[in-house]
């Protein structure tokens, strides 16, 4: 696997921008990575999908404590509680839903816990100036750096400072900036997000 070194073409590209567009434009095009609220993205957590296997534990209720698979329609079933939506939700959201359903049947609501036992729905995409672009299906969440490593690293034409993650979820579609040099050389690890299923990493 080819390593992920900082791109030697970045200074040269910035020099070209300076000649073609003027110094002010060059600063805009090649200056520091843009400000973005990366912590808000990292706090979202893993979203469950069809095929994922969940481990449900309801305290002192073995009949409700079991391992379930999220069906293609995005839900799973539990005795007494019926169907519980799972697709596109975090384990925190699923747990809260189960807790709400338990209130209907128990005076003293037993605590519930949900864990992702096996991941089968997770898919990410890495495209552009990488060695092996395409779809990847890791067995668990990976970060942007891990995703780039799965794609074999950059080609000689890549501009690692202008990587973008395209994300579509309930909040809509957005483009999240990722500056490889800033993460690796300056330690700006807040940019190294855990990729959500369906994220596309674009390397220009």
UniProtKB/TrEMBL annotation:
PANTHER family linked to this entry: POLYSACCHARIDE EXPORT PROTEIN GFCE-RELATED (PTHR33619)
PROSITE patterns: PROKAR_LIPOPROTEIN
Residue span(s) of domain Soluble ligand binding: 124-178
Gene3D superfamilies: Outer membrane lipoprotein wza domain like
Every Polysaccharide export protein N-terminal domain range: 44-116
Protein name: Polysaccharide biosynthesis/export family protein
Keyword Transmembrane set for record: no
Domain of life: Bacteria
Cleaved signal peptide residues: 1-29
Keyword terms, alphabetized: Signal
Upper lineage: Bacteria, Pseudomonadati, Myxococcota, Myxococcia, Myxococcales
Classification via InterPro entries: Poly_export (IPR049712), Poly_export_N (IPR003715), Soluble_ligand-bd (IPR019554)
Coiled-coil residue windows: none
Pfam family, one: Poly_export
